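Summary for the funding panel

The consortium committed to producing paired sequence-structure records for every protein in the target list. Below we show the first two records in order, beginning with the earlier of the two.
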Amino acid sequence: MKKLFLIFFLIIVSSIFAGNAQSSSKYDGAYTYTHFCKGDDASKFDGSQFIIKNGVISNDRGGGGRWIIKKEFKIDDEGKLKFKGVRKDRKYTVKGKLIIEGESITGKLSAKRHPKNSGGSFKKCEMVFKRVGNVPEKISFEDSREITEINILSKNTNDDITLLNDEGKDQKVRVELRNLESIANGLIIVVPSSTPNMEDELYYEKQVSEFKYATAIIYGAEPRYQKKFTGSYTSSMILYDAISTINKVSEKFGKPKEVVIMGSSTGSLAVFKSGWQDLRNKYPALNLITMGFMINAACPDQSDAKYNDNIQMYAINGKQDESTPPWTCKNLKNSSNNPNLHLLTYSGGHHFESAIYPPSKYDMNSMHALPTCSLNYKANLHQIIKRRDGSLEWDGEKKGYKKKQKKWFNKHCIDKGTLQGYEEYGAKNFWADVKAIIVDKKNVTSLKGYTN
């Protein structure tokens, strides 16, 4: 009898612990978040989303790509969760509960932000989770092509002037090459935006993989977010990475007939700068670039920098995009004498072109700056940032480009809210136009997205 009781007792205890250890999938989905720590000036949101899949929490490392969760943390059937993560080299311990109310799932969580060093005390923080959609479907990037990985020696060129002067700390960057058998035809370089999450860039490469060009994907954000250094991943660093890639590929595999460069958001600004004549005079590798695709184009309103006549530049935007709006590119076109700058617009909002995103919807937490502030460049490549209401401006030539500029920009230019996500019709037309330009050499006026 005692033996039967013991067996029964062990079964009950085992089932209790098994129940506690199990995760619940009823909270699965994509969650935006904000967090505020005691002593901070404002709530923080880096553009990433937390993903709960099969009851396990992770972060997509989108936006600033700053949250790293290495272990498997589960959420139980009552919505209770606890996880540890790292954001901008600061460790956090987060715990709380998600609550289902009708179609909505939200949660107010408490967190501890631990000190950078072993000394000192932690800060108390609050986090707010909000479910905004289903778990994103993952696109498979597997194929049978050979991938050749190389390391380039780039530099942390914080701004355009340090780039022009070839200044900055050396930085090794990883590059993936495909279709090298077609290098003589040309090279298509895909540069990152500002995030180590490279799914967008992998998707872009896949769209152009049948064009009989060699391709290169530059993983330039990767080391910058893993190591401490003086600035974030800027468009000037992105362009220096591209220059180093062209040089290394030409040296190891032969000089391509031409180079096509494409990139989104911050990367699109680097693409635009690849046509500046002063930079082409400094870096001969840039003269191989004949076409640039500024996807989700972050256009300056005005650029007085001398532009090269041989590069065809395509500024691509979603018509309903409020993050990188098409009207800034229209301002650039009207303010500059550049007949080789072409405007292409398609149905959809921010990231309309990429199927790695869920269908378009308005995202209240998605950050933007261009509707609030304009970027402007002098003939000597110095930048002026202006509030669109005319109240303030930051002249980089007079005030510099380091931490004070970034702090000013974050305070006076950053706002939230935009239509964001994949729009199948617009994407289909856009990628058809890319093929028409690169492969078929069609005139710009015949393109589906052509805009006067």
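The next record, for a separate protein in the list, is shown here:
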Amino acid sequence: MSRRLTLIIALLALSGLANGQVVFTSLEDVWKYADAHNITIRTVKYELDKSGYATKQSYSAMLPQVNATGSYVDNLALQTTLLPGDFVGKPGTYVPLQFGQQFVYSGGINAQMYVLNLQNWYSARMAKQTEEMNKDSLANTRKNVYQQLATQYYSYLLMQEAARLADETARIADSVYQTTNNKYKEGTNNESNVDVTKLNLERAQQTQITARYQMLTARNNLKALLGFSVNDSLQINATLQSNLDVETNSAFAEDPLIRLASWKTKISLTQYRQSNSAFVPTINVLYNYATQRFDKTFEPFSGATGVAGWFPSQYWSLQASFPLFTSGSRYFQSKRNKLNYQESMEQYEYAQKQSAINDENLRLNYQKAKAVLGKTQDVMNLSLDNYKHISYRYDAGIAPLEDRLNAFRDYIDYQNQYLNSLSDMLVQLYQVKLRQQSF
């Protein structure tokens, strides 16, 4: 019974670990996860939602404005008015009289709507354009976050490759050191050669340590970008061999920066037209209905005393406002907005041309980096083969130790060149992948 209980607990523990671990097999998996969990993307999504409400708010300003009013007045002391006594049969005197009732009830409805107000119309249009621009701002934010993720993702794979080569180099360096040290003990080698081989071993082990810690750092940086905590488990099940090729002949998607420049141009044009609309008169319709009732006692709506009836009044009006003189401020504002529009239009056209050139250079740089990487990898492999041949000759007593050490040093140099070429190629690779994304 206890063995079964122990097995169940172990299975539950493993299940918990499995559920808490996130595994990525490609860069696209990382990007997809970031869309829902990266804090920067989530924040911009909130801003996009806010701009949607701002658009609705701007359009609602063009709807009729309706207000209902109601009031209650308690005249604690009515005002006294002196009237000539002739009105009441007392000539030559003044009679004090009080007019009105103690309690007054009133209510009414007021409605107003702009028939013509281009300022509000352009404000609503500008809010809608800003909302659309914020959608492309979200796309641009996603592109920037994707680039940060790709940098860390490929840094991890690059350091994984560096660690693999460092392991291989450390094994070779250890083998050379052991052989050289044994021959030194036999008296057939000098201490200087032992020191050189020991130095090569230490450098290879140093590279091992550096690569492994940089792998951990890149993974932690991915955790930070994806909203993980430091204790959450993140695993990358991918190799460089399955991540190096990408098609470059297909057309790239439109860069979000270009779309942002386009929206800035449209908003600048709307601002310019809005400033011109300040010279157009505004027209609005106003309707008002009001009613009152008076009473001597506080008995609302009973009609038992005082004046039982309500006294309604209503009117409607058509109002127009003509801007005749505003000290030239609106005129100069219109001139400024026109220049802003022309400037944004030129920047948009330039951005389009520059984006096309950048895309073409990106294709060229990727193809160059891939070709150079192939050559540096071939050179590194040939250098390793050369080292092995010289090692066989050394073991056979044909080649001196210096030749073997020189061949090993050349292999390390070509290995570093390969890693540098690989790093450059990976940068070009994820830039191409980014441009192929539809944000």
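Regarding this second record: Residues 72-115+282-321 form one domain. Helices lie at 2-20, 27-37, 39-60, 118-186, 191-226, 256-276, 329-395, 401-435.
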